[in-house]
Specification:
Length: 721
């Protein structure tokens, strides 16, 4: 009672009036050993109520603690070690018994037991060469026949002495028969030594052998027999990753969300002052190469807290239950060093939807269930945050994505124009650049590229500069490397026939002229008929003047006409269809299908959506969600759309057939021309068409307009050539 009064007097519980007499009458007072630590003591009552025993009053210094931890002898780890030692000892004893049994069997392999009567018959017939009397009343016999053989092949016989019989008469008979005999003297060996050598030493040897085997398995299997469920997570402390947010560009929105989480870990009182809670988890979603893993490494470099990094596939093993054990071990490690950050890359490896329609994976589902339980089990106030990355969010389990587990979904999208420029600046930070390098133009030409593509582009440019013996990367290196990334390197050993070159030349010029002679198109920057390693015998490159996020129906129709312009040129000039248009037809069909089934640009189906995108962050594949008859009608609508665009492309090329021949012959001579050279021909053609129209109306173009019209290159061959 005095102890209770003293505690209540020294450590007052706010808003609580406790009568020591009531405490003594209603509670059994136990002193918690952990309460000896410094800090305010808090009185908490056990919630378990039993009519047969008093409630227990625990004195603890932890207000969040419901009940003191009862010290268990040895703890879980020591129990596991003790269990492991017992198993090894039992295994060693079994191995020792097997070894002794095997040794006995081998030792008796050259001994054959005979009766005493048979021994007397052998002695009477004179067939015995030697006899040995052993201490265990055993007689070992070597016959004359066996004595003639080599010692390694000799076989012995043995029999026992008859109890209470003197050996004097037997020795006389042996002497009379000329048989050598002797008596083996028993070795004076301590029974303790015998026991140690026979039983203890084999056990120790087997234990040491099993220990070595287990250590080897531990290294190879991430824990071996005793620790196979240990986590394989890599732990980064402070800035060991070498990556910070300064190394990540083009993802400002994603960085803002992650910076807030890091600031919460460093200054939790700023957020808890108004009641804000730390998000338990954040899911990074984006296409491959957008920088999800790089962002996670930057978080490790900025957080200055323990950072656990593991891949989703590291949880999955051939043994059922191993993944769940590794999840538990991972969260236990993080809880010990909190605040901490856990990053699970490619979480879709274990977070796939649990669907029993086609059977399930017990190991993966157990791992997912354990992950869900662990996320729910820890308190976000302790400062443990989970980051995960995936490019397939649509297949993740709904229970994993709900609020309270992954509270935030951070989209790591493809960078825009400014983002690509900043990314190029980051990747060229350690690259020596020439004065003519314009990263804005490179960023403008690489629309749709992700961070990994831009990093590869810069590296290819640096390699090209080294191959050509220069000490700095210039603009041409960057443009050439961009072409290498999208089309591959030039195939210098490929030799086309003259007819094939003409077909390829007209094909590529057909693309370029359909684009150049219409509005709502991207300007042509380059045309080439040099084969490349990507499989293309030539290509036409269009560079957007500005970044656009919306496309009208007219723009998409012009794009379809441009894609089909190559096949149109082949049919107009040669009257044939070649395999060179296969990629153009594939892309045109895909675009037309999207216009009909997704964009609502079909007159027949109107605003009806016939398909949905099933995988937006990988290949963008679609899935039809309509009846078979509707899908058949959609295919017919797609075919009509392609046919109309194809006829439109042929009409444009027939109208400008002379221009088609001139540019194709010029390209055939130079093999590669720029967009400016193409526009020289196009503008000259427009000037020739506008002159007769002006004469018919009675007006003439002024001198300024005439001077602005470009002239064709002097080295351009004529159509007659």
């Amino acid at each position: 009672m005095k102890m209770i009064q003293h505690i209540l007097y020294q450590f007052r519980v706010p808003d609580t009036t406790i009568n020591p007499q009531e405490i003594h009458r209603k509670f059994t007072v136990r002193k918690n050993p952990d309460s000896c630590k410094t800090g305010a003591l808090v009185l908490r009552c056990s919630k378990r109520k039993s009519p047969n025993r008093k409630q227990v009053l625990y004195l603890s210094n932890d207000p969040n603690r419901r009940k003191p931890n009862k010290p268990r002898p040895g703890g879980d780890d020591e129990n596991k070690k003790a269990r492991r030692i017992v198993i090894l000892i039992v295994a060693a004893l079994i191995a020792t018994l097997l070894i002794n049994s095997l040794y006995t069997t081998i030792s008796n392999a050259y001994l054959t037991e005979i009766t005493y009567t048979e021994f007397k018959e052998l002695l009477t017939s004179g067939k015995i060469s030697e006899v040995e009397f052993q201490s265990d009343d055993r007689i070992v016999i070597l016959t004359k026949e066996e004595a003639e053989r080599p010692k390694s092949q000799q076989r012995f016989y043995y029999t026992g002495l008859i109890p209470n019989q003197e050996t004097t008469d037997l020795t006389k008979q042996l002497e009379a028969a000329g048989v050598k005999y002797n008596r083996a003297l028993p070795e004076e060996v301590s029974p303790i030594v015998t026991f140690l050598v026979t039983w203890v030493l084999p056990v120790v040897f087997m234990y040491a052998l099993f220990s070595l085997l287990m250590r080897g398995m531990t290294k190879k299997m991430g824990g071996g027999l005793g620790g196979i469920g240990e986590s394989k997570a890599k732990v980064y402390m402070e800035k060991q990753t070498g990556v910070t947010f300064a190394d990540v560009a083009g993802q400002d929105e994603a960085k803002e969300s992650l910076v807030e989480i890091i600031d919460f870990l460093h200054n939790p009182q700023k957020y808890t002052a108004i009641g804000a809670k730390l998000p338990k988890g954040a899911l990074l979603v984006g296409s491959p190469g957008t920088g999800k893993t790089l962002l996670a490494k930057a978080v490790a470099g900025e957080a200055n807290v323990p950072f656990f990094s593991i891949s989703g596939s590291d949880f999955v093993e051939m043994f059922v239950g191993v993944g769940a054990s590794r999840v538990r071990d991972l969260f236990q490690q993080a809880a010990k060093v909190a605040p901490a950050i856990i990053f699970i890359d490619e979480i879709d490896a274990i977070g796939r939807t649990r669907d029993s329609k086609f059977g399930g994976n017990d190991e993966r589902e157990q791992t997912l269930n354990q992950l869900l339980a662990e996320i729910d089990g820890f308190d976000s106030s302790k400062g443990v945050v989970i980051l995960a990355a995936t490019n397939r969010p649509e297949i993740l389990d709904k229970a994993l994505l709900r609020a309270g587990r992954f509270d935030r979904r951070i989209i790591v999208d493809r960078p825009n124009l400014q983002g690509r420029y900043q990314t190029l600046r980051v990747h060229t930070k350690n690259i020596k650049l020439a004065e003519d390098v314009d990263l804005h133009k490179i960023a403008q030409a690489t629309a749709g590229a992700v961070g990994a593509d831009l990093a590869n582009l810069v590296n290819e440019a640096a390699l090209r500069a080294v191959r050509q013996g220069r000490k700095a990367v210039n603009q041409q290196d960057l443009l050439a490397s961009f072409e290498v990334v999208i089309a591959g390197t030039e195939k210098k050993g490929t030799v086309l026939t003259d007819m094939e070159k003409r077909i390829v030349s007209y094909h590529e010029v057909g693309h370029a002229l359909v684009a150049a002679l219409q509005k709502h198109t991207q300007p042509v920057s380059k045309i080439t008929i040099v084969p490349h390693t990507s499989g293309a015998l030539g290509y036409t490159m269009q560079t957007p003047e500005e970044e656009k996020f919306l496309s009208s129906r007219e723009e998409l129709l012009v794009e379809l006409q441009t894609l089909l312009g190559g096949r149109a040129a082949e049919q107009i000039v040669f009257g044939i269809a070649t395999t060179g248009a296969s990629n153009d037809i594939e892309r045109a069909t895909e675009l037309a299908r999207k216009m009909v089934t997704q964009y609502g640009m079909s007159e027949k189906f109107g605003l009806m959506a016939l398909s949905t995108v099933s995988n937006p962050y990988l290949d963008g594949s679609t899935m039809m969600n309509c009846a078979d008859e509707t899908a058949f009608a959609a295919d017919s609508e797609i075919q009509k759309l392609l046919e109309s665009c194809f006829e439109k492309a042929k009409a444009i090329l027939r109208e400008h057939r002379e221009l088609l021949d001139e540019v194709a012959l010029y390209l055939l001579q130079k093999e590669t021309i720029t967009g400016d050279e193409l526009m020289t021909y196009v503008n000259a053609e427009k000037g020739r068409l506008e002159a007769p129209a002006a004469q018919e109306t009675g007006s003439e173009p002024d001198a300024e307009t005439a001077s602005e019209q470009p002239e064709a290159p002097s080295d351009a061959p004529s159509a007659d050539a």
